[in-house]
Design brief:
The chain is of the alpha/beta class. The protein has 8 helices and 12 strands. It has helices at residues 42-50, 74-79, 97-112, 124-137, 155-169, 185-200, 213-216, 238-247, and strands spanning 4-13, 16-26, 31-35, 55-64, 67-68, 82-85, 92-96, 148-149, 173-177, 204-209, 223-228, 231-236. The strands form 3 sheets. It has a 6-stranded mixed β-sheet, with helices on both faces. It has a 4-stranded antiparallel β-sheet with strand order 2-1-4-5. The relative contact order is 0.19. The structure holds adenosine-5'-diphosphate (ADP) and magnesium ion. Adenosine-5'-diphosphate binds at residues 13-14, 18, 36, 38-44, 54. Magnesium ion is lined by residues 42-43, 87, 177-178.
């Protein structure tokens, strides 16, 4: 049974249909890229999977290990091991990074502890050591731990920080919404390196992106899907992303509004 299955999903926002019968299956350990023009519904898919209240599922289903999750609130979906890295991570002043992560870790640990590879940290110091190791893995300084969540982080730091949270929380399926958006080429490489660490954890990974660039630096890429007008219109392997980069979205008869 596939870990995450999206079946004939129809999603609307304020009565307007955005996803029109989208299908996707992601297994743990697989790396998928979802590409598509702006406005095609990529972020809508990510938000619908995590249960953002603004997005209403009109028909179809989202299943985790065969169990429907569409009626579950977001925290319950997170407890199934789903994690969404935001396209635009919000700065939350007053919320300490370390405090936030430790709470998230402990809450998740209670739900996912039956699965292997989840350490129990009894002291704050033990947890800090664990987080520091992961900060190091994504090239962020330990001083980030004593800052407020995302406050004053550069674009690239915010994206690496999202991946770092994933390394700490060890989701079964990690969705990264445009981890490359707004970054220069060096920052994109650094984020890709961080994602490569995540690949090593054996998570299923969905990288949403407009461009093939970041995909070139990934240690592994199993499937590439092109979304247009709320549907997957073509699936393939890595070469498909390169073909898109070379020929543009017009090649598939779809508009790119950028
Ligand atoms: P992508 O991530 O592929 O660029 P989105 O999923 O963000 O696309 O958006 C798909 C469509 O949904 C677009 O036409 C967009 O304008 C519309 N949309 C997205 N978010 C909202 C919202 N909060 N309210 C109304 N329309 C929205
Ligand atoms: Mg988007």
């Amino acid at each position: 049974m596939t870990f995450l299955e999206v079946k004939d999903l129809h999603v609307s926002i304020d009565g307007k249909e955005i996803l029109s019968g989208l299908n996707l299956s992601v297994e743990k350990g697989e790396v998928h890229a979802i590409m598509g023009p702006n406005g095609s519904g990529k972020s809508t898919l990510a938000n619908a999977i995590l249960g953002h209240p603004k997005y209403s599922v009109d028909s179809g289903d989202i299943l985790v290990k065969g169990e429907t999750i569409i009626k579950m609130p977001t925290d319950q979906r997170a407890r199934k091991g789903l994690f969404l890295g935001f396209q635009y991570p919000t700065e939350i002043s007053g919320v300490g990074y370390s405090h936030f992560l430790r709470n998230a870790y402990n809450t998740l640990n209670k739900s996912l502890s039956e699965q292997q590879n989840r350490e129990v940290f009894l002291t704050v110091r033990e947890f800090h050591e664990y987080v520091k190791k992961n900060l190091d893995a994504v090239g962020l300084d330990p001083s980030f731990l004593s800052r407020y969540l995302n406050e004053g982080f550069s674009g690239g730091e915010k994206k690496r920080s999202e991946v770092m949270q994933m390394l700490v929380l060890k989701p079964n399926i990690a969705i990264l919404d445009e981890p490359d958006s707004g970054l220069d080429i060096d920052a994109i490489k650094a984020v890709a390196e961080a994602i490569n660490k995540l690949i090593e954890t054996g998570a299923g990974i969905i990288v949403i992106t407009h461009y093939a660039r970041i995909l070139r630096y990934l240690a592994k890429l199993d499937h590439v899907h092109v979304v247009a007008k709320g549907k997957v219109i073509k699936s393939g392997v890595k070469e498909l992303s390169e073909e898109l980069e070379a020929k543009g979205y017009g090649w598939l008869g779809i508009e790119d509004d950028k």
